[in-house]
Design goal:
This protein has 321 residues and is of the alpha+beta class. The protein has 9 helices and 15 strands. 55% of the residues are buried. The structure holds aspartic acid (ASP). Residues 13, 174-176, 194, 196-197, 206-208, 214, 227-230 line the site of aspartic acid.
């Protein structure tokens, strides 16, 4: 691992992100919450904490924010229910925890971490995931906790599209949050949390909790957290694909992640549309890559020298941690 230094990157989902879809105050709020998520993760790393603890801390902030599709503010499925997916992976041990279709866990990524530590299973789903979280000490929350006016309106708009026979852009439906980190001990970790996409079929599980697809971390190689149409991340096994390209082809992080997002996924079309995809990834030296093939992606990173940036579209904003 040798020269490894700490580094952190986060995302809050990719998509069209039209400027008029949010008020100026909401854009500011989203950027400031990205900054708070970076600060939370960085506080862990600079205090000598683990990459696993850092990605959990960063994701928790975005789960609690109404601006992103995870935790509070998560998307509603076709039945008007929130079903939440999340996972976390420790690159040092390849241990992982994943939760899907949970309905009452306030911070699903923390339940995923508890499952990873518990060790009896990697992946729990539905009511059993909720029961595990409660037994692990996470007080259940009512569905209303997750609901925001915006998500109620988004579901109504999706249903109207369905009735009218018009297809909403894939990019407009979803969102996710995630983080990747390298700690001072040279260990990598990744975490992802999502409400999936608006009007998704009940029981549908996306890529975010699928280890190797939406989330992957392996020491000495890379950590990856994805956002975009999960079905394609699962089919392309995106996180593992990037790690495999690096490990077996000797590609650098930038080459491998750009190739998968821009070519493998970017060349895939559904109803004439490119499959919207983005991700954040970090390598064993703390280099960060954050490619997306959509108009924008909520994202942020801290470089090994401690400079922090957040962005939604092309322009970067340097932030103080
Ligand atoms: N990947 C998420 C899912 O398919 C959604 C997203 O990131 O936009 O559940």
């Amino acid at each position: 691992m040798g020269t490894a230094r700490q580094a952190l990157a986060i995302h809050g989902g990719c998509g069209v992100l039209p400027h008029d879809s949010m008020t100026l105050a909401e854009w500011d709020g989203a950027r400031s919450d990205l900054g708070r998520a970076l600060a939370a993760g960085w506080a862990v790393l600079s205090g000598g904490g683990s990459a696993v603890a850092a990605v959990e801390a960063a994701v928790n902030v975005m789960e609690d924010s109404p601006h992103f599709n995870a935790g509070h503010g998560a998307a509603l499925n076709a039945d008007g229910v929130h079903e939440l997916d999340a996972s976390i992976m420790d690159g040092a041990t390849l241990e992982a925890g994943a939760i899907s279709a949970a309905r009452h866990i306030r911070n699903p990524v923390s339940a995923a971490r508890a499952l990873m530590n518990d060790g009896r299973a990697v992946f729990l789903t539905g009511p059993d995931a909720d029961r595990f979280a409660e037994a692990a000490g996470f007080a259940p929350v009512a569905q209303e906790y997750f609901t925001t006016q915006k998500r109620v309106e988004a579901l109504a708009a999706m249903k109207a599209h369905a009735l009218a026979g018009t297809e909403a852009s894939e990019n407009e439906k979803h969102g996710t949050v995630g983080a990747v980190a390298l700690d001072l001990a040279g260990h990598l970790a990744a975490a992802t949390s999502t409400g999936g996409y608006t009007n998704k079929p009940p029981g549908r599980v996306g890529d975010s909790p699928v280890i190797g697809a939406g989330t992957y971390a392996r020491d000495g190689v890379c950590a990856v957290s994805g956002t975009g149409k999960g079905e394609y991340f699962i089919r392309h096994v995106v996180g593992h694909e990037i790690a495999a390209r690096m490990a077996y082809l000797g590609e650098c992080l930038e080459e491998a992640s750009e190739r998968v997002v821009m070519e493998d996924l970017g060349a895939t079309r559904q109803h004439g549309e490119i499959i919207g995809a983005g991700l954040v990834a970090i390598d064993a030296e703390g280099r960060v890559s954050a490619p997306y093939n959509t108009a924008g992606m909520f994202r942020g990173w801290v470089t090994p020298d401690g400079r922090a940036y957040v962005a939604t579209h092309d322009e970067l904003h340097e932030v103080t941690l």
